[in-house]
Amino acid sequence: MDTGRKTMNLSNHPPQVEVDQYMPTFVPGGVGGGETYARKLFQALDELAEVSVHAVVTEGASGFAPDAQERVISGVKLDSSVWGRLRGVAGVLVRGRKVTRLLRPSAVTFTPFTIPVLPKRKLGKKLVMTVHDLQHRELPELFSLPEKLWRSLMYEHPARRADHIITDSEYSKKSIVKHLGVDESRVTAIPLGADVSGFTPNLAEREAFVYYPARGWKHKNHSRLIEAMKIVREERPEMRLVLTGGALDAIGDVPTWVDVKGLVTFEEVTQLLQKASVLAFPSLFEGFGLPPLEAMASGCPVAASNAASIPEVCGDAAVYFDPRNTEEMAEAILAAIDDRDALVRKGLERAASFPWALCAERHVQVFREVLTC
């Protein structure tokens, strides 16, 4: 009888690794690509017979995992603002002993997000922390003082004390070693995955719009993209711009040819990627950046920023531009439209090279290594 549970032949597999995915600062819908990472990685870890994975979340984020694999910090809810997160963190810290009781003593405590500063000895057998990037160190002018303090407390301090740090790219690894002063042997770069099974390539004709899925954060560079699109429209006046993501009210008033859809469902994102002429990705900074890979998996040409880790992710499957140069950005968008066939071919190959299963396996390698130290 098939019980639907994972099975493991102990004679053929190494001992099972217990992992508590500890997420006391997780706000559903409030962390962009980081949420995709946490959800997809949890699912991929759960599919490995050699792993027993649980999730530890606050009451406001309950439902992240199946009941049998979820431990809830009761009485704590957060929102995505800095002060909302601080209030939530205070609630977690006040409940410190109750929180640590939710963690299995034999498990690796793995946190894919920022974490409250609790004594490391209370966070389980070993602490492995993902630091996606140190954008506040690379682009400090884009952050307010409260945001910098938040990142210092929740990124930097715990990361320095972690047994190991995981990050998304070699670019971010170098940044972490440089700014946090940790030995490079304590940092492992593991590329994220791209779930190509959720995206169907559309090789037929596409509609006259450029698509950009991103929250309205300053580094996402919406204002320069809109200026670049004005140049694009001089040659292709039919071309529109479609924006999706949270906090887009921060970008202010937009021209009539810009369609601001806000937060949309996954199904709507896949449909937009199947229809768009180009995915534009003008971000000033990314520790990784999933949307270009999702576009490639959908057969959508990509015009991308040459900043930070983005070229490392996109390889030769995108047209690059300086994200601070609107004319160059416009030229790249037009070039991506004209060079569609070659970009689609390269993009499909590139997206397929980032499976979540491989991402999960490499995480397990790190967990095993820290347990033997």
The CATH topology of the largest domain, please?
Rossmann fold
Mean pLDDT: 91
**How is the main sheet built?**
7 strands, parallel
Low-confidence parts: 1-5, 7-11
Architecture per CATH nomenclature, i.e. the level-2 architecture of the largest domain: 3-Layer(aba) Sandwich
Task: Give the CATH superfamily of the largest domain.
Answer: Glycogen Phosphorylase B
> What is the CA-CA span between the terminal residues?
40 Å
Task: Give the domain tally.
Answer: 2
Helix content: 25-40%
What does this entry look like structurally?
- This is Glycosyltransferase family 4 protein.
- Keywords: Glycosyltransferase, Transferase.
- The protein has 2 domains: 17-193 and 355-372, Rossmann fold, CATH 3.40.50.2000; 196-351, Glycogen Phosphorylase B (Rossmann fold), CATH 3.40.50.
- Helices cover 38% and strands 16% of the residues.
- It has helices spanning 33-46, 82-94, 96-101, 135-138, 145-161, 170-180, 222-235, 266-275, 291-297, 310-314, 326-338, 340-351, 356-372; strands spanning 17-23, 51-58, 70-73, 108-111, 126-130, 164-167, 187-189, 209-213, 240-244, 258-262, 278-281, 302-305, 319-321.
- Helix 1 packs across helix 13 (356-372), helix 7 packs across helix 11 and helix 9 (291-297) crosses helix 12.
- The longest helix has 17 residues, at 145-161.
